[in-house]
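Sequence in, structure out.
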Amino acid sequence: MVATTFSSDTPLYITGLVREQGIYENWQWWCFIMSGMMSVFFFARLWRRLGVLTDVELITLRYSGKTASILRGFKAVYFSVAVHTIIKAQVILAMAKIMDVSLGWGKWESIIISSSITIAYAMLSGYWGVVTTDFFQFFIALIGAVVLACASVDKAGGIGAMKASINQDVLGFFPPLDGGFLGMSFMTFLGYVGLSWWSKYSSDGGGVIVQRMASCRDERHSLLATFYFNVANYALRTWPWVLAALASLVLYPSARDHEAVYPQMMVDLLPSGLKGLMLASFFAAFMSTLSTYLNLSSAYFVNDFYRPFFCKKASERHYIMVSRLVTLVLSAITAIVTYYTTSIVGAFKFLIAFGSGTGLVYIMRWFWWRINAWSEISAMVASTVTTVLVYSLPSLAPIPYFEKLLVIICVSTVIWITVTFLTRPTEMSKLLEFYHKTTPGGAGWRPVAVLANESANVHGLKYPLTSWMCGCLFIIGLTLGTGKLILGYYFSGLAWFSTAIVTGWYMHRALSRKGWNMTG
């Protein structure tokens, strides 16, 4: 999980955030701590109980009738062609910038060569090969990040000298209040922590993470794996990149392409041996992520679109051949999109906005029986159309990012809730089957629980909810505490660490009392 979300674009993306705004702009992705901990305490056990290959398979287990089949096919194409293309374009764009700075390659040259190597090994190895190599690639990539952070901070004169040379607003962990609580910085921050994390298309885990959770040995392993992912993803990975970005403000104060500064430091500061290790770490991070999305995109297209609608009874050999062909076609589409994409940060923010109208319905389908297939279809269509309009209409394109998110979320939510009440619910037999298989809990399943001769309170959400709140504070405390101590803010660093210790103790006690079973 950590290796997949740690790609060649990540350090360039964080460097761009820090150089353009400051450390606090990392809340653009730190906000997903909250959805990450929802995956730990609400969704890891549920996905593991379903035992699906892709998250799209949930549709046939949760919904009934022809609309369920339509949704499964539509969603498979939506993710494999639209969402994953944007994600892969970010990753490949970063590799193109790295190759341009380090080897002098052109954009098309970088796209074709780096993608071809990854495509070849992903097609030959399959899912198991991708997971195995991810394990080793993560450590190679992390070592490279630490090496460059140390070299860049040393070149900048050390932590103390670096802090003295940088605008103090850049060092803030929360946005400055120069414009008050209604100022652009603070309102954008509220947009991240108040809207982004629950409205994102992967709010209940997402395809890549779901694959990993479903492949765990049991529910306990699924919960622990997802929990460790969040610890490593935020508290462990963040600071080597942030430190390098801060050092770059001292070393390259006038650089125009903020994202390309990171590989430029590799070229300028590291000797040949370490430079080679760093370049290898970039390729490791790049390949671990791109191979996963290549694998998942083809799995979506073949398993959830081609197989159920076009060729139900072919041999496994046939499906493997088709998946390889689909991988090549989708890669060609991605290459074209990548060529016309210029900003990693811009692509990331567009991706969040693009799927921001669907996150709530993906959460609610687990906890409200009335959600049906039309709810999801209408949410995806509304979110896509609204995003295109918000970004393309001259009257809406200039509005701030948080307002774009608010418009997309509000329009999409009103539409899918209206459609939910105007269409028929899922057949009760299918709802009972899903309820018995997952026991999701909550009052939203009371009518189904009554038919199942159970009390709706038997599978309450008290423990998952309190553990989620403590889990969020634990990860935030660990992440901010680590950064504060590294930068020499010892008092506030210890305060954040104390918060992590207290909430971590409470979480462990709650999990131990429940025997790692969060229902009830």
